[in-house]
Amino acid sequence: MSYAVSPSEINGGNLTSQIEFFTQEQPAKEQSYVRARTGSFQACVFSPATWYSVRLRHRYRASSAPWSLWSPPCSGRTAEDAPSEAPAFWRRVIQTDKRGWRNVSLMWKPLRPSEARGRVLFHNVSCSGWRGGPALEDLGTCGEVPRATTSSSSTTTTTSTTDSTTSSTSCLLLLPPGSFSCSITATNSVGTSPVARVWLLSDPEADGPPPNQITVTPLDDHSLDVRWTAPVDQSVNGFVVEWSVVTSDGGSVLHWERLSASQEEFVITEGVEPHARYAVRVTAVYAHGGTGRARAFFAYTRQGAPSAGPKVVVQDILANRLELAWRPVPEEQQRGYIRNYTVYYTHALGPTRSQSLPAQVHWCSLGNLLPGYYNIYMLATTDAGPGVAGPATTVNIAYEDLSAVVFMVSYLGLPLLLIAMLVPLLGLLAHQAL
Questions:
Q1: 3-state DSSP percent of the chain in helix, strand and coil, to 5
Q2: Which of 55, 73, 107, 109 has most Cβ atoms within 10 angstroms of its Cβ?
Q3: CA-to-CA separations, 325 to 313, 328, 376, in angstroms, rounded
Q4: pTM above 0.85, yes or no
């Protein structure tokens, strides 16, 4: 910075200057005092790779002297520096086959501007055998990442992910049986970040216990409060909180956050909406590289009535009785915890009748039915109330379905009917005895 002041005043150290600066990301203005002995000075109060708006004013000699007017603001961008932090890094085993090969998703989060300290050009992901584990050979790792270049050797597999917006935050990796270590770095025009690392051990049961006393509590429509306590007598390096919407096909987006070992509470706000069921997991990351076993906890921020009802299927017609079955309402349409189902059935000559069943039951029998047509449909009920009716089914109980039973009871009488049923049974037993 340069300004027009008498050289003798500046060289004598009688001029105190004050700079005021702010950024678009942090509009709150900051101020710093400097004392210059030349027509320019360096101010080491700025962050790398950041646009600043700066203005300057002076005060002569005593601290009680008045300040000059502020100069017109000027703007400029500081130079880049190497990233100061490693990317947050995590992994998820999607599937393990019978041979022990694992389909693994490696995930990372973009560095914040204050951490990236420049434009990140690429992320470098590497995996290799850990503590004598087998080397990776030509596995084609992370080849699904857009605009990725991949190279592999007999000992490690490396993927460099380059994207103009660094929007790629995951890749897929096929790992054979054994224990492996995977790492990631972020690189800009100046240098490379520190390394972040995750481990995948060959024996998941040896990883360690899960956190204790996990609770998931809704705070409002768009946030869930997750709390836990650390495993007792264990060396824990941190925790990972994972959450996703429960769907019928399991294809929802997995959100996650990596936390320090001292943190035992996290408020989930990303991707949270009412009427959706969330699976939340808390995993402990241990000093030896393993992770604790995770168990899912389920929660809604707010329940709603189901947006669809079950579809009734007639399994059998037995004289004056119907056997019905149905499938659960799809997960996306439940909108709450299903507490019960209600079957409604109406005959043209009578009122609508109903039968309620617990949520875990998916069949029922309707008895004492008259001949004729029945209109049958179902509702599912959550804590928020009954939902939309499912598709109606029409069933015809014909007169001939009842005629045989009616004839035998009416004309033979109940005693003769019982004898007629017992005689063949006794003959069968006698034949088996011989």
A1: 10, 40, 45
A2: 107
A3: 5, 10, 12
A4: no
